[in-house]
Amino acid sequence: MRPLVVKFGGSLLDLAPSLVPVLLKAPRPVLVVPGGGPFADAVRGLGVDDDAAHWMACAAMEQFGHYLTGLGLPGVEALELPPMPSVLLPYRLLRDRDPLPHTWEVSSDTIAAWCAAALDCDLLLVKSVDGVVVDGRLLERVTAPVATDAVDPRLVPYALAHDLRVRLVNARAPGRLAQALRDEPVPGTLIDPRFLESPA
Question: CB under 8 Å to 19, separation ≥6 — which residues?
Answer without folding.
Answer: 8, 12, 126, 171, 177
